[in-house]
Amino acid sequence: NADAEIKTDIITLTRYLTEAQHDLGSYATGDFTLLCHALQFSFKSIAYYIRRATLINLIGLAGSANSTGDDQKKLDVIGNDIFINAMRGCGKVKVLVSEEEDEAIIFPGNGKYAVVCDPIDGSSNLDAGVSVGTIFGIFKLDDGATGKAEDVLLPGTELVASGFTMYGASANLVLTMKGGNVNGFTLDNALGEFILTHPDMKMPKSRSIYSVNEGNSLYWTEGCKAYFESIKYPAEAGAKPYSARYIGSMVADAYRTLCYGGIFAYPADKKSPKGKLRILYECAPMAMVMENAGGLAITSDRQRMLDLVPEHIHDRSGIFMGSYNEVMKAKEILDKLDSK
Ligand code: P6P
């Protein structure tokens, strides 16, 4: 209504980082803030291309092929290039691991941070208009680090920050710092600013929503089968079955789980013995968000996801994450029926 109060005290991501730098003391130095500004720029750029992807890819709008007729780059290549250039450009990153790059990228200079990312997670869903996103994690390198892939073979507990963007109806950024809470920002396209819209996001401890690809149930372990049976056919008298919600894009399933609660799982199974999702730039960053929002994240053999150390930069893991009580319920049944 006309006299609705116009908010004039807007917290942008830039302002949040400045204030967080003050609160987070030691590692949130100016370098960290400049690195986050470069991250922010890459999210804005990727959001722009995603919004136009259909037009560019499907009707060859100007820019989809240059004068020499080069093929229009697939969006995940564009996203990857934007991300790499933004991380190189800020001068604060020494090591960059991307889902799109077989090897770690080592930048010249004396950047103090390592970044792990999946520039466009879920890109196979793009043509169907399903939300995709960027998942990222930031490590502070040890003083003696010389800049090599091994510098990021660390447990997720070492992450100083992590989060993801979901490019949906609007571009939503979820950001959490080590030992901090979870904050959600929405990109205001008119201002070109991420605005704090979801301060201190907390998941309910319980919520009867489960999110898993049931098309894999043929390959599930006995424990996994028993757990999902127990929430679909509850034994307790009068108990209602859980609702199934599976989008097939991790950032979208994670964002819904963060907003509503419930459990998301991509279990290791007979088809994918190590699971499908990557530890460094899918499971660990998401696990840190879930834990800082009051939830849990465990591997298929029920280890804390954030304690898992990858042997190689593209290693995978099974994952169960979401509301505290929901993950504990799954753990209880898996512990009983599956081996460690
Ligand atoms: P499936 C998308 O390809 C992705 O990497 C994640 O975003 C998503 O959670 C998962 O794979 C979906 O895998 O086997 O269910 O299609």
Automatic annotation (TrEMBL):
Required cofactor names: Mg(2+)
Query: Its Enzyme Commission number?
Result: 3.1.3.11
Would the keyword Metal-binding be found if you checked this record's keyword annotation? yes
Cite a single GO BP annotation. Answer: fructose 6-phosphate metabolic process
Molecular function terms, GO-annotated: fructose 1,6-bisphosphate 1-phosphatase activity; metal ion binding
Q: Which domain of life is it from?
A: Eukaryota
What Gene3D superfamilies is this protein classified in? 3.40.190.80, Fructose-1,6-Bisphosphatase, subunit A, domain 1 (3.30.540.10)
Ranges where the Fructose-1-6-bisphosphatase class 1 C-terminal domain occurs: 203-334
- Per the record, what are the reactions this protein catalyses? beta-D-fructose 1,6-bisphosphate + H2O = beta-D-fructose 6-phosphate + phosphate
Q: Which GO terms describe its cellular component?
A: cytosol
Its pathway is: Carbohydrate biosynthesis
| Top class in the EC scheme | hydrolase
Alphabetized UniProt keyword annotations: Carbohydrate metabolism, Hydrolase, Magnesium, Metal-binding
Where is each Fructose-1-6-bisphosphatase class I N-terminal domain found? 11-199
Q: Assembly and interactions?
A: Homotetramer.
Family according to the record: Belongs to the FBPase class 1 family.
Known HAMAP family for this protein? FBPase_class1
What is the protein name stated in its UniProt record?
Fructose-1,6-bisphosphatase
Species whose genome carries this gene: Morchella conica CCBAS932
Lineage start: Eukaryota, Fungi, Dikarya, Ascomycota, Pezizomycotina
